Every structure is written in C-alpha cells, then in structure tokens.
Amino acid sequence: MKKRLLAALLLGSAFLGATAASAEDATLTIESWRNDDLAIWQEKLIPAFEKANPGIKVNFTPSAPPEYNAALNAKLDAGTAGDVIACRPFDASLELYKKGQLTDLSGLAGMDNFTDAAKSAWQTDDGKTTFCVPVASVIHGFIYNKDAFDKLGLKPPQTEEEFFAALDKIKADGTYIPMAMGTKDLWEAATMGYQNIGPNYWKGEDGRLALIKGTQKLTDADWVEPFVTLAKWKSYLGDGFEAQTYPDSQNLFTLGRAAIYPAGSWEISPFGAQAQFKMGAFPPPVRNAGDTCYISDHNDIGFGLNAKSKNPEAAKKLLAWMASPEFATLYANALPGFFSLAKNEVKLDNALAQEFVSWRNKCKSTIRSTYKILSRGTPNLENETWVESANVINGVDTPQAAAEKLQKGLDSWYKPAK
C-alpha cells in the first residue's frame, strides 16, 4: 500500500513538473520588414534573450520591405501571423490595433522607459493606449565625403549661406557632383529633401501640430519656403538627376563621385561597408546663424503583440526585454543609424552614428510632418508630398503652386478638430 501511494505521489509530481515545464516552453515568431537584420537577430539579439530566458525559443522571420504590410495583413486576417509584430509608425499600426489585431501594452513592464514622444507613434490619438514597444528612430541630415572636403578646404556648413557656398565651390572645382540625389523615385526628393530641411522652417513640432489643428496651412510661408530652397538644389545634383534612382544616388556617393549626400541615418551601416573614404555628417543648416536648429528624429520601428498569439505570456517577456536598457544598447550598436527611443543614454561604438545622435543635444527633435493623422485620407498627403517635392526640384511646379496643390488635396477630406 505504501509502495503504491509513493508511486502515485511520484507520478503526480512528475506530471505537475512536466505541466510547469510545458508552460515555460514556447517558440515565438517575430514578423518584420527588416530582412537586412536577419543575421543580427540570429547572432546577437536572440541568443542574448534565450540565454536569460531558458525554455523560450525565438525565430525572426522577415518579409521583403515593400511586401511587408500586405503580407502581414494577410497573415493576421488568416490567423497565421507570428507572436511578435514589427510595428510601422503611426497610422498603419494604429489601424491594426483598431481591428483588434494588436494588444494593449500600456501596462507592460519597462514601458515607463520611454517618453510620451517616443510612444506617440504607437498610441491611440488620445494618447491613452500604447500598443507597441518603441524601439528605434532614424535621423535626417547630410553625410559628406571628408576627403573631398579636405581637398577643397571645406568645413561642414552651419547656415544655409555656408551650405550653398560649399556647393558652389564643389561645382566650380568639377571633381565631384556637389550633391547625390535623384527625383525618379519620388519619395527620395521628399524624405531626403523636404522632410530633411523643412523642420528648420516650420519649427518642428510647433508647425506640425499647428497643421493638424488647422491654425497653419501648407500655403503659409513656413511651409512654402522649404520648397523655395529645394528648387535651388537643382543645379547641384548633376546631369540626368531626373532619371536617377535611389540606388543610383547611393552608388554615386559611395563610389566617391559625389561630395554630399542628403541622408537618412539608415545609410550609416551600408555606407560604412561600401565607401573607401572617410565620412562625416552635419545636421540641416539653419537659415541664419544663431537660429534654433530642428532635426527630423522620426520614430521608425516598434514591436507589438499579436492578439491571437498562442504564447502571449512568453511574448510579453520578449517585449519587456525589448523595452529594457540592455536591449537598447545591443540593438543600437548592432544597427548603427537606428537610434534607441529609450530614456537611458546609449553609448554607441560607431563614430558616424554618434555624430548623428549627438544632434539631439543641440537641436529640437520632430517627426515627419505627414505621418500622423494627415495622410489618412485621399489624396494621401505623404504620397502627394513625394510628387510635389520632385516637381519643384525638376522645375515642373513652382513652390507656391506645389503648396497650393497639397493644401487643396488636404482640404478635400481633412477637417481639423476645433
């Protein structure tokens, strides 16, 4: 009898132990558009998490960037999406939350590591619910060929007058194309051009929020004048820039044929691997010496929880780790040019990345003006800004005409809340 009782107790104990173990064992899948990051996740990020969380395995399964939104939506609708979802900023992810496909993460451990501004790209309009962990932003500015600058006796310009004087000197010398940017891929003209220099005109968040409130219009001087400056870029972009694609622009710069590249910080890592010359960077020059400088420090990527995840508790552990200072440091150094949105200061090993992020200490940060609320209707303001930025540089539209088209399109569907 005693033997039977002991055997029963041992069997019960083993069963409970197996149940507890199975509750801890889980395999998580991360969906992302960052297919360039596969090796970084497999070799650096996932091993660090799995070492601290035995029993949880993680797979990173990215899609090609242009296909990600459609592929993710199809998987979510079919119930086959991964547990953790890489979140696009603002409206695309907000729509997923509204459809009940992303979970409220407002109370997730570590969410207090982020400011309201960092969380704003993954919140409801009232700011009460956060549905993705903020991970990284990208910063706009200009990358330059240090060897070319040294050869021509140039220093990084701080004002627009100095900027155009440098371009004139580069053009007169004739060795280099002054600036590598094309207009065939329309987004390049807007993202590297209008959204890069524009915040210095519309005063960053002040102008962006005023546009949303309806107290400013795109036909106001603060929004037209960036187009006026962009129109001046035309004579510095080299022959045939109208047919030049984004990869063409990248190649012109990394091959040493252009002196300046209007940039997003995501270029830092590939440029570092490809360019055979020293590089530096400077923020968008201010209009006049002493002016406050503004930078586009744009929330780019976050991670959320699939509402239909079969392993929600394990997924929350992974997301809480993504909200930690440890992850912030690992991620920012594994992907130079993608800057942590966490409050804690992250020490960066890459000198060019450190130069970009140092601008946060001397300039005011903002996000791209078209990304929140203002591109939810038709015509889409973001896409229309691509078209008009290219048209202005190409000389097809005047700055005023471009601004009028954009405001007319916005007025056709957007009524600011009073």
UniProtKB/TrEMBL annotation:
Gene3D superfamilies per UniProt: Periplasmic binding protein-like II
GO BP: any one term: transmembrane transport
SUPFAM superfamilies found in the cross-reference section: Periplasmic binding protein-like II (SSF53850)
Coiled-coil intervals: none
Keyword Magnesium part of the UniProt annotation: no
Subcellular compartments: Periplasm
Endpoints of the signal sequence: 1-20
InterPro entries to which the protein is assigned, alphabetical: Bact_solute-bd_prot1, SBP, SBP_1_CS
Main location: periplasm
GO cellular component: a single term: periplasmic space
UniProt keyword annotations, A-Z: Periplasm, Signal, Sugar transport, Transport
Function, as annotated: Part of a binding-protein-dependent transport system for a sugar.
Protein family (similarity comment): Belongs to the bacterial solute-binding protein 1 family.
Name of this chain's protein: Probable sugar-binding periplasmic protein
